[in-house]
Amino acid sequence: MSDRTPTRADALRRIVAVYPDAPIVVTLGATTRELIALGRADNHLYVLDSMGLPPAIGVGLALALARSRFEKVVVIEGDGSLLMGLSIFATIAHLRPEKLVLITLDNGTYASTGGQPTAAASVDLCAMARASGMEAEDVQGGEALAGALERTRRAARPAFLRVAIDQTNLETPYFLEDPVLLGHAFAEWVRANR
Question: The CATH number of the domain where 26 resides is what?
């Protein structure tokens, strides 16, 4: 039996199952909408209309929470959004945020804007992550993702997963809440649980 390519929703379910109580920074668009459809949570920071910025937010959180009870700070990013903020790898190399787990769900498209292809297939994202001092793994299949996520929990340095997902999108309503209020609610949760 082959380990099939997961949908975005499949991958999100697995991530949340491994990191149910971790601070999770979630990229915009379809990823945020699908994660909310699977179950909204106080420990999720839904980053709206800020393409390329979720990893930078995650780096800041991982550094600020280095001495907290949180095992890891997880960032769920898309391939197109990560390509927009590639300079984050230099920042990670410089600052070495040990608690950071950066997971890129790569479907090769800009899912939220009509499915235009990204350039992710032309770039070795794992090589970039390794060159930045991260543990990095290219993940193919849902069962492989489960094992890779468990390894990120034990990583003694920043970890990166590039997860191949298919191009399936759940039918979800638009999510149009105030980003300031979302940020405030997440910050309150972090303060109460650190």
Answer: 3.40.50.970
Query: Which residue is associated with the tokens 């060159």?
Result: 131
Q: Are 146 and 169 in contact (CB under 8 A)?
A: no
- Compute CA distances 60 → 55, 63, 100, 149, whole Å: 9, 5, 9, 21
d(CA 48, CA 44) in angstroms, rounded, equals 12
Query: Domain range for residue 15?
Result: 8-193
Query: Residue ranges of the alpha helices (H) in 73-178?
Result: 79-84, 88-95, 125-131, 142-154
Strands (DSSP E) along the chain, which ranges?
24-26, 44-46, 73-78, 100-106, 109-110, 116-117, 135-140, 159-164
DSSP helix/strand/coil, 20: coil
Q: What are the tens digits of pLDDT across the range 124-165?
A: 999 999 999 999 999 999 999 999 999 999 999 999 999 999
pLDDT (tens digit per residue) in 29-71? 899 999 999 999 999 999 998 899 999 999 999 999 999 999 9
Closest CA to 74 of 26, 39, 144, 31: 26
Q: What is the DSSP letter of 8?
A: H
Confirm whether 2 is domain-assigned: no
Whether this prediction's pTM lies above 0.85 is answered by: yes
7 secondary structure, DSSP code? P
Write down the pLDDT at residue 169.
87
> Are the C-beta atoms of 71 and 99 separated by less than 8 Å?
yes
